Amino acid sequence: MFIGNITEVFEKFTNKERKFKPELSENIKGMVDMYEASQLGIAGEDILSEAEKFSGQILKEKLDCINSHGAKLVKRTLEHPFHKNLPMFTARNFMGDFHDKNPWLSSFSQIAKMDFSLLQCSCHREIGQISKYDKSFI
């Protein structure tokens, strides 16, 4: 099913006064998802601005009411939304939060470290190639 535009999706969560339904605030995961989705808005999509304000306010209010793990996730989302971030630099924070809770993350963590090492090696190689052409670089 194709949805014409994002405004239509968010309108399903509003009441007759075009305000977000208060009962949505009970679902913290839903509020995090709404906040993340609102970050994809462009100029003229007022409903996304409203979604950001609504979900951001709810998440800030609920920070003290949720467990420490959930609070960390919410706080990080508010500070560094996924789509306005470079995941490579925030992965370490994410991995630390879930490492003890999921045994398979140990393998995932090793793969992530290898990926970072390969990227670092590639950057070193590029710097070496550049320095061959410009001795004043180093």
What characteristics describe this protein?
mainly alpha, 2 domains, 138 residues
Brief digest:
This protein has 138 residues and is an all-alpha fold. The protein folds into two domains: 1-85, Alpha/alpha barrel (Glycosyltransferase), CATH 1.50.10.130; 86-138. It has helices at 6-11, 28-38, 46-62, 68-79, 87-98, 105-133.
Oligomeric state as shown: single chain
Counting structural domains, the number is 2
User: What CATH architecture of the largest domain would you give?
Assistant: Alpha/alpha barrel
Structural class: mainly alpha
Element pattern in H and E: HHHHHH
Radius of gyration over C-alpha positions, nearest whole angstrom: 21 Å
- Looking at the structure, the CATH topology of the largest domain is Glycosyltransferase
Approximately how much helix is present in the residues? 55-70%
Low-pLDDT regions = none
CATH C-level name of the largest domain: Mainly Alpha
Shape: elongated
What is the number of helices? 6
Q: Please provide the count of β strands.
A: 0
Task: Report the biggest beta sheet as strand number plus sense, adding barrel if it closes.
Answer: none
Please tell me about this protein's structure.
There is one protein chain. The chain has about 140 residues and is mainly α. It has two domains: about 1-85, Terpene synthase, N-terminal domain (Glycosyltransferase); about 85-138. The protein is built from six helices and no strands. It has helices spanning about 5-10, 30-40, 45-60, 70-80, 85-100, 105-135. The mean pLDDT is about 80.
